[in-house]
Amino acid sequence: MGIYFNPGNESFLQSKNSRIYVDKTELINELNSRLSTDDKCIAVSHARRFGKSHAAGMIDAYYSRGCDSAELFEDTKLATNPAYKKYMNKYNVIHLDISSFWDDYKANIIEKIKEYVVSDLRDEFEENVDFSKKFSVILMSVYKLTGIQFVIIIDEWDCVIRNSDDQNLIHNYLQFLHSLFKSEESKYFLALAYITGILPIKKIKDESALNNFQEFTMLKSRPITQYYGFTEEEVMMLCRQYNMDYESMKAWYNGYLIDGLHMYNPNSVSMALNYRDFDSYWKNTSSFESINTFINMNYEGLRDDIVNMLSGKKLYVNTETFQNDFSTVSSKDEALTALIHLGYLGYDREEESAFIPNYEVKKAYQAALCTGNWGKIGKSIARCDELLRATINCDSDKVAEIIELAHESYTSVLRYNDENSLSCVLTMAYFTAPAYYNIVREMPAGKGYADMVFIPRENAGKRPAIIIELKCDKTAEAAVKQIKDRRYEGALAGYKGKLLLVGINYDSQNGEKKHHTCVIEEYEK
């Protein structure tokens, strides 16, 4: 058993022993069906923390001859397949994490990868293999000696592509991968290739190193979609098991729509369950910086489009033009597609549209907007918490003041001439409220539809429920009166806590003076 050649099953054992573990072992059935076929090379390109490395450790444990994993898999979903032991621990496995090599070696990364793998191979085949030959020939020699094919796993394969501007290094790196996966020797020694990354395989002219790979991405990953991320059913099961509110979990972490399946970021869900607290756990500095970088390019009004998506709208995107390289982004569609692959946008393939997937991702945009060069929009976003506190404290003057700022911030982005448009602005103004509330627009209630209803989640503490009625060129008092007359409180049947009635009016005829007025009353049962 080595580190890079025929690793043990410690990684998968650690995953199984973790407090939060979801069985994804049926992925092995899909991989077994590809062994030594024309479909033996697969590339999984998903956002960070979506379970790619977990799967790599599981694949080690199943195929590697460096361990005995019979007991480890006997109580898994995979074991329901009568033939599940057929390929278990029967292959020579090479497992590389390119990011760890990049951190230490960069310019001579290829030589160091070969050096470390060869070192492991020497320990077992020193007397029978000529290690002076090229790398693919060494692997071929091991195969001829043992009669056992290789399963090659490369984690973060695109690390060099994403982090290097040295085109010569990138070219040499791709040629190295070609020798592993598409050389004449690999036709014989390779049983399966599994590579993971953030970006899909880079489109480079005259480079054919990886064009024999089937790709599974944030845009499309059927038939293995359910093995990466947590499904709705799995999250519901975990919430029941750990006595956590599913609706809050859904608001915070649901939203990635891949092949029609709603997928959750497994790292964020696990952290929320472990800490018993909903928070923004999925953060990566380099990816976070990409938000501001791409948005500030402002291709074809991208900044306004982002604001529209943050208010709940979807945006058409052509994903075909993206060259799978951050450094070549030169259009709105390419910037949006990059954000989809990074996990900062969801993608509805049926509608060919991008959207903000969940509240955790909205928080990342909030930080970007508050720290970037966003002018009044950044200032408005920064006052969202203050607006919610002012509403809860019945400070109607402060509410009107902050909504006035929101109006000034978004008036050039969101049409602002009717109550529906006003509700879009209010959605942005109450940007942080979804952390504690399920916000429903146009909710059936009493004798009509309440414009906005804030329903407290389990983690809302003593925060009250809120019903907001919006008016244009009328009065805030008339808005509150409509809530009472039409009995909109009926939308909260069964709710026993404090309830606030909020009327907001926008006066479009008020010239340069204050446009908004607000009235807040506590509902008397």
TrEMBL record:
Q: Which PANTHER family match?
A: AAA-ATPASE-LIKE DOMAIN-CONTAINING PROTEIN (PTHR34825:SF1), CONSERVED PROTEIN, WITH A WEAK D-GALACTARATE DEHYDRATASE/ALTRONATE HYDROLASE DOMAIN (PTHR34825)
**Superkingdom of the organism of origin:** Bacteria
| Originating species | Agathobacter rectalis
Domain AAA-ATPase-like as annotated: residue spans:
16-203
Question: InterPro entries under this entry?
Answer: AAA-ATPase-like_dom, P-loop_NTPase, PDDEXK_9
Q: What is this protein called?
A: AAA-ATPase-like domain-containing protein
Q: Name one Pfam family in it.
A: AAA-ATPase_like
Annotated TM spans: none
